[in-house]
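Entry 14. Two folds queued back to back today. First construct below, sequence then structure tokens.
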Amino acid sequence: MRIAVIQFPGSNCERETMLALQRAGMEPVEFLWNQPHSALATFAGYVLVGGFSYEDRARSGILAALDPLMQGLREASQQGKPVLGICNGAQILVEAGLVPGLEKNQVGLALTENKRIRQGKILGTGFYNAWVHLRRSDRGLTGAFARHLTPQTVLRLPIAHGEGRFIIPPALLEEIETRGLNLFQYCSESGAIHDEFPTNPNGSINNIAALSNAAGNVLAMMPHPERTTAGDAIFHSMRDYIREKTLPAARPLHYQAPTPVLESYRPTATAQELLIELTITDNQALSVKHVLGQRLPTLQLKRQTHWEIECDSPATYEKILASEVLHNKRKELALARERSPLLPQEIGFLVRAKEDMLGQQKKQILENHFGIQGIRALRHSVLWRVQARESLDLITHRVLQSQIFFNPYAHDCYYY
């Protein structure tokens, strides 16, 4: 029973995963992203391991999700073979549309930045490393991964992620819960579901820790079952599912992901725009260019950080610049918009997180640590500037089709 342990550049949990598979009586085989993809068909199941594929460039999981290897996993999942994505592997499955498995593998949800909430207050954001409790949800499918677990079985597993918060549109969430696809939920030690920190460690909607496709053979799971024997039941379930050799029958999900419609960016009338440009090599832009360049062969790409600043006076604006909170003079150049206009053959895509926690955080730092008052608003975005010999319509189509710059459930995107 050979299981492919799939690794992309930056994956780092392969050893723990292989040991867990061995404990369950399966034969793990390391499978690198650049091996012949046709060999995937020879395996009985697959695990996409945790880590930081491509250093989480652009956003967690997206570059690996666009790798041609993922087509082989789609085909294998359609044959009923089990596919488990752990942590970064879960992010890859979500961005590739294998979970929850909408028509034509449309992306239907997001795994985005953690938000630790208690009594309505945000206690922290970003990376969080801790032990948590979770259990199978009351309606959760047994599927390929939970046949040895009941809603009364509480697991204690570690988490270690910065973008593990499930965001799901209400119509899809209702269908997911009705169908039992919200397989595992964060809970207290006694199994109670409390939707606040620390029981819910990342603000995930309805405490979701792991989400399945409709057939139950693909699972995107943020906690790490491979790092402790407490998670072995999940791998034993995977083994027994493979032994049964049954193709799961499942009704397709009804939810249809809307097509993103971009509007032109218009700053607030009183705002000043600040563009930050790296003076050293931009590895994020190079990685995105490599992946997107497969769809746009003549592509040239530049990435800039964009700040929209509203303050009460020019003096306040100068204090903000002098603080270097928004840019590092040793490796970044600060430009006003008029000093960095788009070229005639360029098209700009401005991407802003819907909650913009980075903008809120920087505003608090400027006020609390630097004593700068009079900042009315501070909004953070990323500006992707695209040049290509293809038509602007084709460029836009390829960018939106890939969703490489933004996930529409976590970000807003504008023409710039």
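Second construct, same run, same settings:
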Amino acid sequence: MVLERELLVTGIGGQGVQLAAQVLARGATREGKHVMLFGVYAGAMRGMNTDATVVIGDGPLQSPPLISHTWSAIGMHDKFWEPVARKLRDGALILVNDATFETELDESRYRVLRVPATDTADGLGNPLGGSMVMAGAYAAVSGLVGLDALVEGMRESIPPYRTQHIAANETAIGAGFEWGTDRKAVNA
């Protein structure tokens, strides 16, 4: 039986939602996993909703790229959270950006981690790196993608005109992965 894990990522355009999903998908692919990625964003690049679906499996995938239920979610912002919330399975793993996600979540129903993604990125001198911190934290907590593959996935995802951000993104991913590893050990 093929093990499949679904991830819904949501936020506001400009927060790096599409990049984070792409980095996680490419990282999993580098580890030989089967992956589907589907990104959706509103007509305006910044300020409107942006969502991505990633399905990762250890064999050929059965889930379509548009899913009705999910094993996990990342909320970079809660402005457009409601459609994602309706798809969460009981026991879902949810990581939210502590600085921008104010909605209360039922911690008796879900495994919720409030990641200091924006604050960590700011502290690293990379104010746009919150999604990379979040991708690192998610990879560590979920165990779906290793750190080295995640970093390589990020390098493959950065367009040629943005290569100046690779080193800062690598640091942000590493900080998020370390944060997630510490939380995984505490919550295991």
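Quick look at the second one. The CA atoms of residues 141 and 183 lie 7 Å apart. Residues 166-187 form the longest helix (22 residues).
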